[in-house]
Structures are given as C-alpha cells and as structure tokens.
C-alpha cells in the first residue's frame, strides 16, 4: 500500500474514533505526498468540520471547488458547514449549487432527469 494511502486510512480510523486532531494530522501527511487529491481534501474538510474548526473546513472545501468545479458533493459539505456556523442563507445557496450540479451530472446519463427541487433546505436544530 502506498504511504499516502496508509496515512489516509490512518486518518479515516482516527475520524471514526472521533480523534479529529489526529485525523487532521494524518490527512495533512497524506496531502504532503499527494497534494490536490480530492478524496483527501474531502476527508480533511470533514475532520475540520467535526472538530468545530469551521473556517478551516470551509477553506479546505473551497479548495476542492477550485480543483474540481463539477464536484457537487463539496457543496453539500459546504452547506452543512455554513449551517453549523449559523449562516443559513449561504447554507441554502450551497445546497442549491449541490442540487444543480448533481442534476447536470445526471442529465449526462439520463437526458430526461427531472430538475431538482428548488425549495429551501430544512435546518435541523
């Protein structure tokens, strides 16, 4: 197994054990070996979010947007991050982006796919 994958897997184990600082350290180690790896960035963003480091989570997620503008999952993550920050307007905007990008991806496979629901997201308290 490649060293960056070992670090990634170690980070996943730490994340599952809610050892967020350790997970972040492992993901950063993996990113040193494999900069720009989207799956690593998603994992790092999640670890920051669960650690309550929302600005770092958002910054990492925005890097994903720069590297892969078609990634719809990152907008779902950003929506959750902004919800946790209490910025519901931006959370709804990110959720809408996720729905539109997912629909556009679906249209490539299924030209008859119905458009996404454009209603507001439901905020869980």
The CATH superfamily name is: Tetratricopeptide repeat domain
Number of helices: 6
**CATH structural architecture:** Alpha Horseshoe
What's the CATH topology label? Serine Threonine Protein Phosphatase 5, Tetratricopeptide repeat
Question: Which of globular, elongated, flat, extended, rod-shaped describes the shape?
Answer: globular
Written as H for each helix and E for each strand, in order along the chain, the element string is HHHHHH
The overall pLDDT, averaged over residues, is 91
The low-confidence runs, each spanning 5 or more residues with pLDDT under 50, are: none
Helix-residue proportion: over 70%
Our measurement of the CA-to-CA distance between the termini, rounded to an integer number of angstroms, reads 42 Å
Question: How large is the radius of gyration?
Answer: 16 Å
- Our estimate of the beta-strand percent is under 5%
* Count of distinct strands: 0
According to CATH, what is the class?
A: Mainly Alpha
Structural class: mainly alpha
- Write down the domain tally: 1
Instruction: Please outline the major beta sheet.
Output: none
Any chance you could write out the topology, listing elements then pairs?
Elements: H1 3-16, H2 20-33, H3 38-50, H4 54-67, H5 73-85, H6 88-109
Helix pairs in contact: 1-2, 2-3, 3-4, 4-5, 5-6
Model description:
With 125 residues, this protein is mainly α. The chain has one domain (3-109): Serine Threonine Protein Phosphatase 5, Tetratricopeptide repeat, CATH 1.25.40.10. It is built from six helices and no strands. The longest helix has 22 residues, at 88-109. The radius of gyration is 16 Å and the shape is globular. It starts with a helix and ends in a 16-residue tail after the last helix.
């Amino acid at each position: 197994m490649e060293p960056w994958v070992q670090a990634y897997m170690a980070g996943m184990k730490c994340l599952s054990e809610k050892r967020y600082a350790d997970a972040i350290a492992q993901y950063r180690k993996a990113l040193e070996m494999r900069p720009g790896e989207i799956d690593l960035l998603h994992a790092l963003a999640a670890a920051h979010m669960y650690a309550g480091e929302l600005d770092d989570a958002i910054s990492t997620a925005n890097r994903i947007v720069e590297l892969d503008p078609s990634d719809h999952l990152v907008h779902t993550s950003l929506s959750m991050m902004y919800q946790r920050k209490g910025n519901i307007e931006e959370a709804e905007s990110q959720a809408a982006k996720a729905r539109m990008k997912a629909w556009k991806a679906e249209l490539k496979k299924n030209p008859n796919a119905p458009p996404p629901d454009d209603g507001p997201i439901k905020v869980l308290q």
